[in-house]
Specification:
Helix content is about 25%, strand content about 35%. By secondary structure, the chain is of the alpha/beta class. The strands form two sheets. It has a seven-stranded mixed β-sheet with strand order 3-2-1-4-5-11-10, with helices on both faces. The protein is globular.
Amino acid sequence: MILNRYDEKLAGVYDQMYPIQPDTDAAVDFLVDLCPPEGTVLELGVGTGRVAIPLSRRGLKVFGIDASEAMLDELRRRDPDGAVVAELGDYMEVGTGRQHDLITMLLNTFYTAVTKEQQVGVLKLVREQLTPGGRFVVEAFDPADFHAMRDPHTSVRLLGDESVMLDNLVVDRSQQIMLGSHTILDGGRPHTTRHVVRYVFPAELDLLGELAGLRRVDRFGHWDRSPYHAGSSRYISVFVRDDN
């Protein structure tokens, strides 16, 4: 079960929360290179279509699943022709019944599975939906700095000329759990959404993948394929089905 669903308020400010267009362009280029021409892509946690819509414009058949109706409404607004075949659902529990040349989980979506068992279950579902020779790509933040946190942390980000977001974060290192909240202040009643994620270190992700029948073949620190290293703030991992 997915615990972290974007409601209408958060869906409306998603682009302000993650204003990363150059990074999006690099991600699209990276993913297109992994998929055969006119291949099929499945994005788990497709959201507003930040990556899915540009992929569809590059000639790929793109499918998406998300647990938030508000996020899918925003996707449909941006994609009125329905180039991305998006559906409401819990990608942690149910597969699509199809196989795809490329499956993605971007922007820390994998961490929304909040137990080790749930994470292995997600990866097993990925394997079922991945074609032989297909690729599975996971993008996630490197947890080293967060794992070292001992005290709660509060930060502020500007959403627009008249609104800000307060982010509060607490880390339980014993469980690798992060408890956070987003509070939007825009002149009306404050709106708070809470979330929980379970982060994993790169070597742990590799092991979870092996338990699910997936084998890592690449890892990078950025969409431009620069190497992952000790100072990287995130890691991008590429897996294939292990059919041996």
